[in-house]
């Protein structure tokens, strides 16, 4: 069972503590019932029952302390386990190969991990309560055996019938929970896909109607599955409770006919059985919760396994380069793999050389391979790195991080982070000067390691991304269609001021562009067509 494996793996000593506290809580709870019965018997016999009352108060304190400590320890154990789960998922995600991640349903990672982790955390209270109920049932059963072996046999028979009934429906319940989680994932993915393709949805009424219909159908299926699971749970609870009402009937109506018991003993036995049934109802409530928790943990384990399969080769512990001198591509190739396993678009072979203090323009039509070339030469597509030579040394899959460390880039589908991660101590005065130069000082402030807003136009956000590149100040700057969303003024500043300035500072600069009017500023222009260089010019 995934739940037990998780708890044993995460913290076995704490799990033993929780089990011990739950056992003490259950035992003291059963003792309270015994003391109440003993006190009632004493009163029935015209005694004061002082001793029973003092013991009752003492056991009540033990019950309260152990119950609270068990539930707090259980909550802390589950929270700690899920905190480590979150960290593991992020660690694995950070080492996933980009080309493999691009073929994944990224929303699955976000939605499934958040949903499953949240469910496990929420389930902790119910599961610890179920442990306490289980021990209470055990100790009450022992007490019942002391009071009446016949009643114990009747209760045992009822438990056996209830257990067989639950076991017979266990597989159906597990399958139902997995189907619910699957349809939840499909709903999350469809919502995210609609947002990504919102322009296409708005433009096409037929597509919009079809999406709405499909989503509604999924909601109906999900609701049906949830209702079936609820109905099965309620039905199971009713059947099992009915079984134990038959047990009570046996205790009250049958046992006195076949054994010599007094009325007060029947009342004691009936009180214990009723107490058992009350806690049994609570215990039954955790069974579907345990099933859902197991399904959630199975989903998390599956996600971790998928991320492990997508991971790139472990990196060697190599120091960063002291100074960038040259970047050479020698027969660099990269081929996309289609979902059916066949080969798709191919880049290369590409031969190219770039040195510090050079400005290279890469031009070509849409689909010519410009972005693929950038991702390959920077090591983002690690499988292509054997065609890359950094400072005269061939890059290997296990040293690709060394290659990546020399680049700052803004891709056409760039992301602007909320904070200056890794550069929190950047000089605010320097950034403020760049904000002014980029025409953003009236809209954006830099405070406490973050920009005051990112609610800007695409061109303005690209200017903010450029500022982050300047703060990083790495040896090689790469701009993928940076000027595409800029007005004429900032396009002119970019090509005639910024790029030449970076080159004069000894930076190697690569600019992917469609702007033909500024090619004269470059030291070299490379044209790509169908994944190959067709016109290198110096």
Characterise the protein shown here.
The chain is of the alpha/beta class. The protein has two domains: 309 residues, Up-down Bundle (ABC transporter transmembrane region fold); 208 residues, Rossmann fold, CATH 3.40.50. Helices cover 64% and strands 12% of the residues. The protein is built from 15 helices and twelve strands. The strands form three sheets. The chain has a six-stranded mixed β-sheet with strand order 6-9-10-3-11-12, with helices on both faces. α15 links the parallel β9 and β10. It starts with a helix and ends in a 5-residue tail after the last strand. The mean pLDDT is 81.
From the 3D structure, determine the CATH topology of the largest domain. Answer: ABC transporter transmembrane region fold
Q: Helix tally?
A: 15
Element string (H = helix, E = strand): HHHHHHHHHHEEEHEEHEHEEHEHEEE
Approximately how much helix is present in the residues? 55-70%
Strand arrangement, largest sheet? 6-9-10-3-11-12
Name of the CATH first level of the largest domain: Mainly Alpha
Radius of gyration: 34 Å
Provide the residue-averaged pLDDT. 81
Q: What's the N-to-C terminus distance?
A: 66 Å
Total number of β-strand segments?
A: 12
Give the SSE map:
Blueprint: H1 2-10, H2 12-44, H3 50-94, H4 98-101, H5 106-147, H6 149-168, H7 170-196, H8 198-203, H9 205-258, H10 263-310, E1 326-337, E2 343-355, E3 359-364, H11 370-377, E4 388-390, E5 393-394, H12 400-404, E6 407-410, H13 428-437, E7 446-447, E8 450-451, H14 458-472, E9 476-480, H15 488-504, E10 508-512, E11 524-529, E12 532-533
Parallel strand pairs: 3-10, 3-11, 6-9, 9-10
Antiparallel strand pairs: 1-2, 1-4, 4-5, 7-8, 11-12
Helix pairs in contact: 2-3, 2-5, 2-10, 3-5, 3-10, 5-6, 5-7, 5-10, 6-9, 7-9, 7-10, 9-10
